[in-house]
Each structure stands twice: as C-alpha cells, then as structure tokens.
Amino acid sequence: MPTTSGPRTTSQRKKKSSKKSPGLDVSVKRRFQTRLLKWYEKHGRDLPWRKTSDPYHILVSEVMLQQTQVERVIPKYHEFLDRYPSFEELADAAVSDVKKTWYPLGYNIRPERLHSIACETMERYGGRLPSDAEELLSFKGIGRYTAGAIRSFAFNEDAPILDTNVIRVLHRVFMAKGDPKTQKAKLWQLSEALIPSGKGYDFNQAIMDFGAICCTARNPSCRQCTMKSFCKTYPFDQK
DNA sequence: CTCCCGGTAC
DNA sequence: GTACCGGGAG
To answer: Would you kindly state where each structural domain of chain A is located, as residue ranges?
Structure first.
C-alpha cells in the first residue's frame, strides 16, 4: 500500500460523502474526530472499568451500564468483582446469590444472563470471552450495543457503538432533522464511519463522555462546545 | 404523587 | 411494539 499521496488523492477529495455514510463531509468528520479526542484528553472521566483490560470486567461493567446510571454502577461494580473475580467464580456461583449481589440495580434478568454468559464462556470458550461480533451476539444479554462495547473496550477493535448518548450526539451534530429513533440505521453507519482507524477504544469512550457531560439531553453546554462551529443543531440551548 | 427514561429479548 | 426495574424530574 502506498503511503504517499498522489494524483488519486485529488479525485477522492472531490467527493464529499461516501456510500457508507452519505452526507458526511470529510472535513467535518476529521474535525469532529480531532476535537472529540482532544476534548476527551481534558474532560474524560476516570471510570473504574477504564483501568482494566480484562474482558470479564468490561463485560460486567457494560451489562450493569445497560440501563443504570454510572454513579449507581460504580460501587456495585467493585462489590460484584470482589465476590466474583472471574468467569470461573461467577459460573460456579448460585444464580440466587448472583441476583442478591446484583440488588438493587434493577432489571434483574441481567444477573441471570450474566451468569449464563459466564457458564457458556467456561464451557464453550475455555473461559475466554470471544471477540467476534456474531459470537458475542449469540449470548442472551448481549445485544448490538454491548457487543460493540466489548469489541472496542476489551479487544481494541474499531467496532461501532450506539447507545442513547451516542444517538443524541450524532443526531445533533450531523443530522439535526427528524426523529433519531427512526434513523438508527443511518446512525449506526455514522458511528462506524467516524471511528479513526485504530482508535475505537478512545473514540467510543470519548463520545459517550461527551454525551454525558457536554451534549446532555437537558441543558447542553452549547456555548462552550468544541463542536459548535459545525454542529447542525447549534445553538440548541437558550442559556 | 405521576410520568419519563433505557438495552435486550420477545 | 412491550416488559423489565429503579432513579430522577416535575
């Protein structure tokens, strides 16, 4: 693969969008990537599951985070891992005990599914969580978001994620029009197209922090937002 | 008190 | 489309 730019570059530059992500301006894409990663360096949260590369720990955090706020997950994440430090210990535990440890996070089907994932990982994968998307999606309890989160956070793959934070950020910055709920396919394409090569981990963590801290559902910080010069929704707030 | 929110399985 | 289960806003 040639690494130097040649005549080909010029003809590619003329196109402002690709088939993969129609309407995505290459310069806006580049600025979004750069500014997001820069913002993350300065404002990124110091969360416990960002200090580990153990896929089991990442899985536990992601299942807890599926429908529960970060602040409530943090203490339970530590407590759960103290009691069940690995897939093996979780698989060997009684489901009733796992559910007790889970309380009061809610959605109590989640500890059952987490336990079954641990059992299946021990039995079918030798205690090692697979990184393949299809295999991850075959587990009850791992959907498209969690599969992407595990692939990017536990295995450093450039896999897209789309949760409510990411939906809100991408819809505001790049789309602005229409109901985000009905444009999931396009948002998944955007989420994938925006990941800078080799930086899936940082980019995905960054966009979730950005949605949680700056591009919030209520009262977003548009005035000081690093994306405001090209955001299709700016200014959203009235403050 | 009454809504409203949210990943996944169904 | 709905249920799941808690927290938070109004």
So the answer is: 21-46+159-224, 54-153
Tens digit of each residue's pLDDT (9 = 90 or more) over A24-76 = 999 999 999 999 999 999 999 999 999 999 999 999 999 999 999 999 999 99
> CATH number of the domain at A54-153, please?
1.10.340.30
What DSSP string runs through A116-164? HHHHHHHHHHTT-----HHHHHTSTT--HHHHHHHHHHTT--------H
Contact predicate A156/A199, CB 8 Å = no
pLDDT, tens digit, for every residue of A122-179?
999 999 999 999 999 999 999 999 999 999 999 999 999 999 999 999 999 999 998 8
Strand C contacts (CB < 7 A) among A residues 178-237? Answer: 218
Nearest Cα neighbor of A192 from A204, A182, A210, A180 is A204
Angle at A185 between CA A179 and CA A190, to 5 degrees: 95
Asked if strand B comes closer than 7 Å to A147 Cβ, the answer is: yes
Q: Check whether residue A109 has its CB closer than 7 Å to nucleic acid strand C.
A: yes
For domain A21-46+159-224, the CATH architecture is Orthogonal Bundle (1.10)
Q: How far is the CA of A9 from the C1' of C10 (A)?
A: 55
Strand B contact at CB of residue A141, distance < 7 A: yes
Each residue's pLDDT tens digit, A111-126: 999 999 999 999 999 9
Cα–Cα distance for residue pair A208/A58, rounded to 1 Å: 15
Q: How far is the CA of A217 from the C1' of B4 (A)?
A: 13
